[in-house]
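WARN retry 2 of 3 for item q-0093 after timeout on previous attempt; input resubmitted unchanged.
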Amino acid sequence: MPRGGRWSSSHRGSSPPCRAGRARPSSTRRRGPSRSISGFIAYALCAADEALRDANWLPSENEKKERTGVSIGGGIGSISDILDASQLIAENRLRRLSPFFIPKILINMASGHVSMKYGFQGPNHAAVTACATGAHSIGDATRMIQFGDADVMVAGGTESSIDALSIAGFSRLRALSTKYNSLPQASSRPFDCGRDGFVIGEGCGVMVLEALDHAMERGAKIYAEVRGYGMSGDAHHITQPQNDGRGAILAMERALEQSGLQADQIDYLNAHATSTPLGDAVEATAIKSVFGHHATSGGLALSSTKGAIGHLLGAAGSVEAIFTVLAIHHGVAPPTLNLEQPDLLFEGAFMP
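OK item q-0093 returned
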């Protein structure tokens, strides 16, 4: 959790954020179009490049490019560019405003730049659904393949939101951790009794999805298979979940139904658990409701990787999907960092 960058210790009232290493893909070093690339777009370009190379999918034939799409969304976009631009307007320095200001802040430009770099002409999609963005991007991409719109989709979420304004906004929501400012590494502690808020992180997670027969035909390296995808809205409050976890329950039940699997066939669950007092408790209640005896008997491994990387907002769902895929691939579940005293909702064998 490095100090510095767009955050300093003068931004009191919240723990230092978790920031990814500086991202600057080679394509952004040129003059011209490079000026239209902001941080969240650069993260997407870097992550997409890594994913495509790992998947060995860099087609040169037009037919393959036309059957390859991109579904990369974001939660906030480039809030730092918005802040800088508003400062120029306030100082009556309109001529200093970049003509690329609008393209730099549009969420869909992450998908747009990836498609332009590789010439992908399939579906181009950008979900903007706050913390669910990364998961929605992957689920939507899966359905596009199932519907026949594409053979391959580059999917994920990206975020570059560590900025004084976003930190101030989340602080005013009282969503950020403040109890552990003297020990920032301990601030993000999902499911722990001492949790008091989340830590902002940033970065990007991208995976390459493709039709199973297409992957097998070309001898692709297959990590996992998407079996089900569930969505819901709890229709309750703009930031606060229902105490009974009904929204989360519906999403999990719908994913299970689509997958054709039973609850007791699930071995590992990567929780959203952001380290907020109410959010983690509601999620634990929802998990216990859906998985019942399977969870309470210790059959379900459960963890939140936000203890290690913080809350990546729009990128959270896709980064955590990658953690989950790798857990399946290697047969090792990641731990929940800073979990010292589990919430009292957990008991017996039902422990993160």
